[in-house]
Design a protein that fits this description.
165 residues; mainly alpha
Length: 165
């Protein structure tokens, strides 16, 4: 399978895989989620190396600057400029609040990496999945099913087991 960039701006870089017959299928949420997990794993290892001997807040600021420049470099490739001007105040507010939460998360994550083993910090950080399940139920009305509760419980148990000394 060949990897190509799709010319239509229909999502983050609109990656698609071309099959041998020339047919294309778009990457769905699962593909993007798996890529996110791979990059998050790389982030933990690279950050653990990079934060050695450096103030964790300074390290977070450097990382954040790179993310900022990278994200804005991608926008013109995937999104018409008119979309930026069309953002509503509500959208900007919630994206800004999300950015603040991300910043706080990264500051805490880098400090934790500085103090602990990456193999212990990362699983505890992934407890965010459990918190997302709960917050999505409370604020977004998403269902807390038996499957969701069981999966969340397994994630929590796995994180605790991995973090134990």
């Amino acid at each position: 399978m060949g990897l190509r960039l799709d010319a239509r701006p229909a999502g983050p870089l609109s990656l698609a895989f071309a099959s041998r017959r020339g047919q294309h299928r778009r990457m769905n949420w699962l593909h993007w989620s798996l890529l996110s997990a791979v990059f998050a794993a790389a982030t933990a290892i690279l950050a653990k190396i990079g934060v050695a001997g450096v103030d964790s807040n300074l390290a977070t600021a450097v990382r954040t600057t790179v993310v900022l420049v990278f994200a804005w470099a991608i926008v013109p490739l995937t999104t018409p400029y008119s979309a930026v001007a069309a953002l509503s105040g509500r959208t900007l507010l919630f994206l800004a609040l999300s950015g603040l939460a991300t910043g706080l998360s990264w500051l805490c994550y880098f400090r934790a990496l500085q103090l602990g083993d990456a193999s212990k910090v990362a699983p505890i950080d992934k407890l965010s999945v459990v918190f997302v399940l709960i917050l999505a139920a409370v604020f977004l009305g998403e269902a807390l099913t038996l499957k969701t509760l069981l999966g969340g419980g397994l994630i929590a148990a796995g994180a605790v087991v991995l973090a134990l000394k």
